[in-house]
Amino acid sequence: MNEVERLADQLARAHDGDAWYGAPTRVVLRGITPEQAARRPISQAHNIWEIVLHITSWQREVLHRLRTGACADPADGDWPTPPPPSDNAWRAALDGLEAAHRELLDAVRAFPPERLDQPLGEARDAPLGSGDSYYVLLHGVVQHNLAHTAQISLLKKAFEEAS
Q1: What are the residues facing 130 on neighbouring strands?
Q2: How do residues 102-142 score in pLDDT, each as one tens digit?
Q3: Residue 21 above 90 pLDDT?
Q4: What is the DSSP letter of 162?
Q5: Distance between alpha carbon 32 and the CA centroid of its chain, in Å?
């Protein structure tokens, strides 16, 4: 297994595979209703729906970076605003997450291993993530998704305990 295959494996495990740490993102999201996703049990924290849109937005941006080598803020914004809660809107958010994940996973699998050490962008800009290598970018998206999956898990526990 080469390094690109390992990175793809980690991305897949974090989302819907046999994750070492526990439940992957797809499993954590299972059973959450639109009302629960929109609920804000911690007033100053993002809700589950916002986090799902944020993960989706950044997966699309990482895909854009793999394709173009250019770093930008996500086209949909860093923290897109969810629509009013409904079954259709929540299903669309989850479907969008799945589609972004699959498209990114396909792009990672096709990425040339010899390019992993190449930097993205012109100069180092930590908030934007430019100047890092593709290797760092791909590890970063896995870490990003896992950090937000942990947040979703905690928010889910908060409304499960309140019921």
Answers
A1: 125
A2: 999 999 999 999 999 999 987 898 888 889 999 999 999 99
A3: no
A4: H
A5: 17
SS3 sequence of 15-80: HHCCCCCCCCHHHHHCCCCHHHHHCCCCCCCCCHHHHHHHHHHHHHHHHHHHHHCCCCCCCCCCCC
pLDDT tier for residue 163 given thresholds of 50, 70 and 90: low
Distance CA 32, CA 49 (A): 10
End-to-end CA distance of the chain: 46
Compute the chain's Rg from CA coordinates. 16
pTM: 0.95
CA distance 143 to 149: 10
Write the CB contacts of 147 (distance below 8 Å, at least 6 apart in sequence).
Answer: none
Question: Which domains are seen in the chain, by residue range?
Answer: 3-162 (1.20.120.450)
